[in-house]
Design brief:
This protein is α+β, with helices and mostly antiparallel strands. The protein has eight helices and seven strands. The strands form two sheets. A five-stranded antiparallel sheet has the order 1-2-3-4-5. A two-stranded antiparallel sheet has the order 6-7. The two termini are about 25 Å apart.
């Protein structure tokens, strides 16, 4: 059970991001209720995490060029709501190409230019997790034990200075520290123990 509503956790993440990247929140554009309606047209039930994100911001378009504003986390951008349907198709194509059986619901959240994804996954039993899906492999690997822990962990990455800007202005991270912080908060996630 989350200690804070997901919208509050997401807003905290944005505040922490803005301390390092002052123009980041503005670059994401404003979210609105219409976004929930457009997402509802794409899926039977919009997860709370997507509601929290897209009622707050619109996301980062694939045409963003400012290095400090492209990435939501190092290596991945927050999918813009106008590109969401297209990214759902790309994700479905990757899963199909790799012969991945899709049990439950798998939805894209973050992506990169190599068609790798950080995905929302809800199992048939209703367990929600955040997973990594690399295009070259096609296996879902649990990164965060819940949507709330996903946002809480990302907030910790800022608080513990795991994230920083490199010389070119891109968001970067201390990989060792990232693994330690994430593993401590997400003990069931295989991703951090590999």
């Amino acid at each position: 059970m989350p200690t804070q509503p997901l919208t509050e956790l997401f807003q905290e993440y944005l505040r922490l991001s803005a301390e390092l990247r002052p123009n980041y929140i503005a670059s994401l554009g404003a979210g609105d209720e219409a976004c929930s309606t457009s997402l509802a047209e794409l899926m039977p039930q919009v997860p709370e995490l997507l509601e929290a994100v897209y009622s707050t911001v619109a996301g980062t378009g694939s045409d963003e060029e400012d290095p400090s504003l492209v990435e939501f986390i190092p290596g991945y951008r927050l999918i813009h709501r106008e590109e969401y349907a297209q990214e759902m198709q790309v994700l479905a194509g990757v899963l199909q190409e790799k012969g991945q059986e899709t049990e439950g619901v798998i939805l894209p959240l973050l992506t990169n230019y190599g068609s790798d994804f950080i995905c929302y996954h809800r199992s048939v039993e209703g367990v929600e997790r955040i997973c990594d899906l690399l295009h070259d492999y096609g296996d879902l690997v649990v990164m965060y034990d819940s949507p709330a822990l996903f946002l809480e962990t990302l907030c910790e990455f800022y608080k513990q200075e795991v994230y920083f800007l490199d010389e070119e202005g891109y968001l970067d991270c201390d990989l060792v520290k990232e693994g330690e912080v994430a593993a401590a908060l997400n003990p069931e996630a295989n991703y951090w123990s590999e």
